[in-house]
Amino acid sequence: MYMSTDELRTAFLKFFESKGHKIVPSSSLVPVNDPTLLFTNAGMNQFKDCFLGIEKRDYTRATTAQRCVRAGGKHNDLENVGFTARHHTFFEMLGNFSFGDYFKEGAISYAWEFLTDVLKLPKDKLVVTIYKTDDEVFSLWNEKIGVSADRIIRIDDNKGAPYTSDNFWQMGDTGPCGPCTEIFFDHGDHIWGGPPGSTKEKGDRFIEIWNNVFMQYNRHADGTMELLTKPSVDTGMGLERIAAIIQGVNSNYEIDIFQKLIKAAADVIGHEDLSNQSLRVVADHIRSCVFLIVDGVMPSNEGRGYVLRRIIRRAVRHGNKLSVNGAFLYKLVGPLVEVMGMAGEALKQEQGLVEKVLKIEEESFACTLDRGMAILNDALENIKGGVLDGESVFKLYDTYGFPIDLTNDVARERGLSIDEKGFETAMEEQRRHAREASQFSNDHNLVIQVDNNTEFMGYGTTESHGMITYISVGSMYTETLSMPDEAVIVLDQTPFYAESGGQSGDVGFFSTDAGRFEVIDTKKYGSVIGHHGNLVDGNLSVGDTIKAKVDAEHRLAIALNHSATHLLHEALRVVLGEHVQQKGSLVRKEGLRFDFSNPEAVNPDEMRAVEKLVNAQIRQNNDISTELMSLDAAKKKGAISLFGEKYDEQVRVLTIGDFSIELCGGTHASRSGDIGMLKIISESGIAAGIRRIEAVTGQGAENAFYRQQQEFIQKINKYQDRAKVLEKEIQQLKEKVAVQKSESLMTELTKIKGVNVLICRLDGFDRKVLRTMIDDLKNQMGSGVVFLGNVTNDQVTLLAGVTNDIVGKINAGELVNMVAKQVGGRGGGRPDMAQAGGSNASALSMALDSVTVWLSERL
Ligand code: SER
Question: Which residues form the Alanyl-transfer RNA synthetases family profile domain (predicted)?
Fold first, then answer.
């Protein structure tokens, strides 16, 4: 029976739905609040707490098609991809789960029914494995299901070490685990390989398709196994593997979705041989890259981001092997949406973002790939003993951005290997240099030994009493502090907030009758709080009870910036998308700085939208409240936490209206209105995919506006002065042009009855210049009549000049008036110089012609 991968996924979920299971959507590839796990690597991850009995849901049976990534961490398949028929960095895991509901018998019966009844797989093609000592499962397979004993293989622990068998499944070094039974499909003896447990098990003949884990224990970090109160079931079947069987192919890469992806990759790369191994790698890697980005991972140099970067670079290198021209991976996002069917839904809304991230990352690596490859080729050609030395591997990593597995890949293709240990040594050496080069302040070396932790009293107050438990001067313990001394003082309890979570430390004073200490910064040293400052009066000793007073204005300014940071964070997620994650934060009195993941610069419209949203929230003047609750309850409430951050079991949850809810230990304003307003000062990039916003609030925002206004006024004044100077220069230039023009006009001089006459049309000249010209022309001709017509901006200007010896016969005023009437205007002036305006520009030519006639009649 043939089914498409999409149909198969649906058939599985529907089958288990018909058996009372709730269909639960796939969770993100980034496990929420689980620092023990790099990526979601199995369907059971999202149910981890259900297995442990910590979390209760309103169902006890669930089924999912979970997106998984196995690249990095405990289950890592990256290096196998492209080299085997069935390993992927990304795959979908079909699973059914029982939380204290059915156990071994139910799980085995359902699995068998689905495979043999629904999918109609021939029973004689299936073999099963069980945990060596699990007789119960043996008899279930053998007696209940009817699988013959020779098809049930017991798999022992590795060299007898407990719980190391392939048939004992554990999610990670800690967490739920238990024995399992696996179902294998025999692809036939035309393919190399042997049954599980045999020497040829690594071949592609017998493929594991379904793992049924009987969750019985919680493994602790020290290795102890705690028995779970409710034994449960966790199963997982790779969608791509079962699709290969149903579609009658031996390799996952031959199933429908991979065939389409490989074709799409071949098209964008421009390569024709669809069986090429590099195309498989690209088709595999595009899936993990895209879904990791959809789930909020951005390429970077550490943690999850670095795994993503490695996968992208590996894919780019394989494209490069096929001589691709330019960035290509991002062009595969569209085809991927198409082939993923239901599982591609999450991707649809993020397609544009994913394409941008991939393109930027591909292009940045392309800059060093060619040089790096040339160096690597060279090194591999001159290699001695078949192993590439660690120094070269490190240089490729450090200078050319070649992840170690990429270098290893290239070496392996030529039957060579790399010195991984040597690489680690070179890497460690570089880290050591970096450490030595960095400045260690005394602070880092400060060792404070006190019996009790400092209790922080300052969430609700800025003043309290406290007893001095420790004084340190120049990193040395001191009983008594006397003038003048710089010191670090520790109290048993304090209202001073110590720098943490990006919020800077408080400042203020300690005082007693005997002395006064100015606190200029507050820092954490493990669980004690150190107040840095100077003794400004008298003396202080260990054991003294002092009054501790925080500079409340300073604290408030910080609080406003901290609350505003939360609003900004949420507003960025609303405007730019859920992929925005906090990557760093600095909250000080002067303002705030917020670093976050985003693939490109935030454009001015988006910035404005963010600013507007934050300010609208401020104006709503919502309550800012904090609540202490369990981490679990906070997660349920939907509080934003930082990925990878380790939180205590009890956490503070900060809520601003119904807009923002975040885990936070900082000090905050009491209502959003207290923030006054937020003004973004700058937006910039600080690393690939990481942007930084700097902003100010409250008084700081007011000051910023005032400063800006002053700057504008200064700028306007400057421009005005400059404009005046320029206008003057222009006028001078115009006059200069007029003089030149007048000189050239003299060639057009005519005579009427022996009198010099000059009639000209000079459009575009301004009136003032024309008047200068009239005088100039009169002077030049000595005796005569000048008439100038001009159209500027559809307005007519007329000017007439008559030298004194002629004014008896010709009156300039009359002349101008005569012409003005013809162009819809009037005018007048002195007999020797007159001016008029008019609005009918089109009549000017005719009107000018009339001047000759008029003069002829009078001269
Ligand atoms: N968690 C088990 C596995 O990943 C079964 O789903 O194999």
Answer: 3-707
CA of residue 203 to ligand 1 center, whole Å: 21
Give a yes or no: residue 733 inside a domain.
Answer: no
Ligand 1 centroid to Cα of residue 667, in Å, is 43
Q: What is the mean pLDDT of residues 417-442?
A: 72
Could you identify the residue written with the tokens 């035309």? Answer: 190
Q: Pick the last residue of a domain from 503, 530, 550.
A: 550
Q: Around Cβ 807, how many Cβ atoms within 10 Å? A: 15
Which of ligand 1's atoms lies nearest the C-alpha of 42?
Answer: 4
644 has a pLDDT exceeding 80 = no
Distance 237 CA to ligand 1 centre (A): 8
Are the beta carbons of 555 and 506 closer than 8 angstroms?
A: yes
Smallest CA separation from ligand 1 atom 6, residue:
236
Q: Which of 235, 241, 242 to mutate to test the pocket of ligand 1 (most atoms within 8 A of CB)?
A: 235
pTM: 0.60
Considering the domain architecture, whether residues 401 and 368 belong to the same structural domain is answered as no
Q: Which of 406-410, 636-640, 791-795 has the lowest mean pLDDT?
A: 636-640
**What's residue 441's pLDDT?**
34
Alpha carbon 567 to chain centroid distance? 17
Range with the poorest average pLDDT among 114-123, 483-492, 725-734: 483-492
Torsion on CA atoms 102, 108, 109, 114, rounded to nearest 10: 110
Please give the number of the atom of ligand 1 that sits closest to the Cα of 41.
4
What CATH number corresponds to the domain at position 792?
A: 3.10.310.40
State in Å: Cα 238 to ligand 1 middle.
Answer: 9
Closest CA to ligand 1's atom 2 = 236
566 marked as binding residue: yes
Instruction: Look at 203 and 496; give whichever has higher pLDDT.
Output: 496
Residue 135 lies in a domain: yes
Q: How far does the centroid of ligand 1 lie from the alpha carbon of residue 111, in Å?
A: 14
Judge whether 532 is annotated as a binding position. Answer: no
pLDDT of residue 438: 38
- 147 and 277 in a single domain? The answer is no
State the pLDDT confidence band at 614, using cuts at 50, 70 and 90: very high
Task: Give the number of domains in the chain.
Answer: 6
Could you count the other beta carbons within 10 Å of the beta carbon of residue 685?
13
Q: Is 212 helix (H, G, I), strand (E, B) or coil?
A: strand
Alpha-carbon separation of residue 180 from 221, 271, 570 (angstroms):
21, 43, 43
Same domain, 802 and 813: yes
Out of 550, 570, 596, a domain closes at 550
Q: Which ligand 1 atom sits closest to the C-alpha of 212?
A: 5
Position in ligand 1 atom list of the atom nearest CA 75: 4
CB 562 within 8 A of CB 667: yes
> In the predicted model, is pLDDT for residue 36 greater than 70?
no
| Ligand 1 close to Cβ of residue 42 (< 6 A) | yes
Is the shortest distance between the CB of 45 and ligand 1 below 6 Å?
Answer: no
In a domain, 714, yes or no: no
Q: Which atom of ligand 1 is nearest to the CA of 169?
A: 2
Helices (H), 200-302: 239-246, 256-269, 277-294
For residues 53-57, give the mean pLDDT. 83
Output 815 or 398, whichever has higher pLDDT: 815
CA distances from 661 to 588, 640, 655 (A): 21, 6, 4
562 annotated among ligand-binding-site residues: yes
Find out whether the beta carbon of 485 lies less than 6 Å from any atom of ligand 1. Answer: no
- Provide the 8-state DSSP code for 859: -
Residue 367 annotated as binding site: no
Same domain, 68 and 87: yes
Read off the pLDDT of residues 460-491 as tens digits, 9 standing for 90 and up.
899 999 999 999 887 788 899 987 678 999 99
Over residues 296-314, mean pLDDT: 87
Domain that holds residue 184: 5-254
What pLDDT does 443 receive? 42
> What is the maximum alpha-carbon separation in the chain?
139
Q: Return the pLDDT at 132.
A: 93
Q: Is 43 in the pocket of ligand 1 (CB under 6 A)?
A: yes
The pLDDT tens digits of the residues spanning 450-463 come to: 777 899 999 989 99
Residue 447 lies in a domain: no
